[in-house]
């Protein structure tokens, strides 16, 4: 059996939920600030140096200088060069220095087999403290009134067409989540239902009496029930959107090229929130059972959403694509014939008469790993890609790419867990060459803690990753 990586919770449940010491974290930068600094938890792995000898082009030197790996890997300059070596494809893991990542998280990565010059993926593991912005009553918060919240955060960012988007997301997305949670600190710690509205600051726009604008209430028989859990989900969803908007604002000045899929896990107040925008995957192994915590967003799985957008806004197709799907590309000689098709409302197939517009390239084509949207990209959700255009065209793809994640919630308090239970996160490079069951069987056979301990985050050990990398 392959060697395992220890990955489970050490003492979170037994600690009684007491928050850890407040970590230092710089404020979220605004759109006009200088390029944000890296989190102060540790030194960033130094950039690789250009090789000695003949002078390399300036573009090559700049590319090498911008290459970096996750801070927690603590790579030396030599280790960084090995991490960027396509020939050796060395497996990188955090050093065994006795200082573990939060929740005894395990991690391993290996560069791809030549799809891109550098490893464009990034990862992040943080403990984030959230201090409330104001009390629900609207009065200034006193230091002695209530405590802030602490959440644990893990993120995998699968970059493409450049690594800067993934790097930026790994540094800033958890800060956007923190910013969204500031208004919720006191609300989440209060067992009563969330207030319908937060009080306005006196004298601020919208704080005047607007009761005269309220219309008939006959259609509002009762107020919708809003849970604390849904507030956290909404905060995560908004954080993804604001992260994507920041990338759009700064893509020129900070050279944020490309994009990335994002898989994020937040542990807060006894619940695990898994947010996925892309084709990465998360599973929980509980008592030998595999529980999917995400689904992949590809042109196939989101066909109807893409087709609906193309149907409602045909100008986005630029006269080059059709929103309809056919089993294969329609040929000019088939004009007037009846061919199988399906539109944005259909899950089955039917026949239609082929018209001239049907000769355009389909919005969604191919199947499996070869499925593409607008013949260009194989994912339909993620961050960045604001400069992405259709091949040999100026038609933008971004309107069809959604930055909103799907968020699934796992309540740790509702289940009994054993030391072998684990949460596994992986980009598509892992899942393309192995299955959920294979990862489960190769996972840890035992771990720290005891019965009742929740599953800790885990990625394949170096030996496992070497076997999975293909």
UniProtKB/TrEMBL annotation:
<dbReference type="GO" id="GO:0004741">
    <property type="term" value="F:[pyruvate dehydrogenase (acetyl-transferring)]-phosphatase activity"/>
</dbReference>
<protein>
    <submittedName>
        <fullName>Protein phosphatase 1J isoform X3</fullName>
    </submittedName>
</protein>
<feature type="compositionally biased region" description="Low complexity">
    <location>
        <begin position="47"/>
        <end position="59"/>
    </location>
</feature>
<feature type="region of interest" description="Disordered">
    <location>
        <begin position="1"/>
        <end position="103"/>
    </location>
</feature>
<dbReference type="GO" id="GO:0005739">
    <property type="term" value="C:mitochondrion"/>
</dbReference>
<feature type="compositionally biased region" description="Pro residues">
    <location>
        <begin position="36"/>
        <end position="46"/>
    </location>
</feature>
<dbReference type="Pfam" id="PF00481">
    <property type="entry name" value="PP2C"/>
</dbReference>
<dbReference type="InterPro" id="IPR036457">
    <property type="entry name" value="PPM-type-like_dom_sf"/>
</dbReference>
<dbReference type="InterPro" id="IPR015655">
    <property type="entry name" value="PP2C"/>
</dbReference>
<feature type="region of interest" description="Disordered">
    <location>
        <begin position="436"/>
        <end position="470"/>
    </location>
</feature>
<feature type="domain" description="PPM-type phosphatase">
    <location>
        <begin position="104"/>
        <end position="470"/>
    </location>
</feature>
<dbReference type="InterPro" id="IPR001932">
    <property type="entry name" value="PPM-type_phosphatase-like_dom"/>
</dbReference>
<feature type="compositionally biased region" description="Polar residues">
    <location>
        <begin position="461"/>
        <end position="470"/>
    </location>
</feature>
């Amino acid at each position: 059996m392959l060697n395992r990586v220890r990955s489970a919770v050490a003492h979170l449940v037994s600690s009684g939920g007491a928050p850890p010491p407040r970590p230092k974290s710089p404020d979220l930068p605004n759109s006009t600030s200088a390029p944000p600094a890296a989190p102060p938890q540790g030194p960033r792995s130094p950039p690789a140096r250009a090789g000695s000898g003949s002078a390399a082009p300036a573009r090559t030197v700049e590319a090498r200088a911008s290459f970096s790996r996750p801070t927690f890997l603590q790579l030396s300059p030599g280790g960084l060069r090995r991490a960027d070596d396509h020939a050796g494809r060395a497996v990188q893991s955090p050093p065994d220095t006795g200082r573990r990542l939060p929740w005894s998280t395990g991690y391993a990565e290996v560069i791809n087999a030549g799809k891109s010059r550098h490893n464009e993926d990034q990862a992040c593991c943080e403990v984030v403290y959230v201090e409330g912005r104001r009390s629900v009553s609207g009065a200034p918060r006193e230091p002695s009134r209530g405590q802030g919240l602490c959440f644990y955060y893990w993120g995998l960012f699968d970059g493409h067409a450049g690594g800067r988007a993934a790097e930026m997301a790994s540094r800033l997305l958890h800060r956007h989540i923190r910013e969204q949670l500031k208004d919720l600190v006191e609300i989440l710690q209060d067992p009563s239902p969330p207030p319908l509205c937060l009080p306005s600051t006196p004298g601020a726009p919208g704080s005047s009496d607007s009761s005269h604008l309220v219309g008939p209430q006959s259609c509002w028989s009762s107020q919708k029930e809003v849970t604390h859990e849904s507030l956290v989900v909404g905060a995560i969803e908004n954080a993804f959107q604001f992260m994507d908007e920041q990338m759009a604002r700064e893509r020129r000045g900070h050279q944020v090229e490309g994009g990335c899929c994002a898989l994020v896990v937040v542990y807060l107040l006894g619940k695990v929130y898994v947010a996925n925008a892309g084709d990465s995957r998360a599973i929980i192994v509980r008592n030998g059972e595999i529980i999917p915590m995400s689904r992949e967003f590809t042109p196939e799985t989101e066909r109807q959403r893409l087709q609906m957008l193309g149907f409602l806004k045909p100008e986005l197709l630029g006269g080059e694509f059709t929103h309809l799907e056919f089993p294969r590309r329609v040929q000019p000689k088939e004009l007037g014939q009846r061919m199988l098709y399906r539109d944005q409302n259909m899950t089955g197939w039917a026949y239609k008469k082929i018209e001239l517009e049907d000769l355009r390239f389909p919005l969604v084509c191919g199947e499996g790993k070869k499925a593409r949207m607008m013949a260009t990209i194989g994912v339909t959700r993620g961050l960045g890609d604001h400069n992405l255009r259709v091949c040999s065209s100026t038609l933008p793809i971004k309107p069809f790419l959604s930055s909103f994640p799907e968020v699934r919630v796992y309540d740790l308090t509702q289940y009994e867990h054993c030391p072998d239970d684990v949460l596994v996160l992986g980009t598509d490079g892992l899942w393309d060459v192995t299955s959920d069951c294979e990862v489960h069987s190769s996972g840890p056979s035992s771990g720290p803690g005891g019965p009742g301990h929740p599953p800790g985050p885990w990625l394949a050990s170096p030996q496992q990753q070497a076997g999975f990398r293909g």
